[in-house]
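How a chain folds remains the central question behind the approach discussed here. This step matters because it turns folding into a mapping between discrete strings. The sequence in question and its structure tokens are set out directly beneath this paragraph.
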Amino acid sequence: MSGINVRYLKKSDSAQVAPLIFRLTKNVVEPEKLQERIEALATNLGSYQFFVAEKKIKDEWRVIGFGGLVWYQIPSKGLTAWYEEIVVDEAFERQGVATEIMKVLDALAKVLGAKQIKLTTDLAQGLYESNDFKVKEEVLMIKKYY
């Protein structure tokens, strides 16, 4: 997609990213704290990095996509990475924005030495399959503390 820039998330992006998260899921824990959590992600204090995709619209850069990579060591697998919360503004869907974000995430995973990248999704499965992901049947279990 021409004119798109994928860059590191900044604290000042939180107001533009928050509505994207609500597009991704209606199950946002403590929604009143969402922008605060997004701002905290801009300071990489852990094994994660988040990015935004932006496009210049009417002489102003606008955030049109978001996504991140988290990583950790697993004894049996080595360094494992996960795509997290990849989402694109509805007006820019099917224009290659998510693919551009994934290229950056893949490059980071490669630099880190990740042996595999995982993701969970109930949306855009075809997009991920076209980017070399394979469906793996397994049981996902979640324990909630809220």
Remarks:
- The radius of gyration is 15 Å.
- The domain at 4-130 is CATH 3.40.630.30 (Aminopeptidase).
- The chain has four helices and five strands.
- The chain has one domain: 4-130.
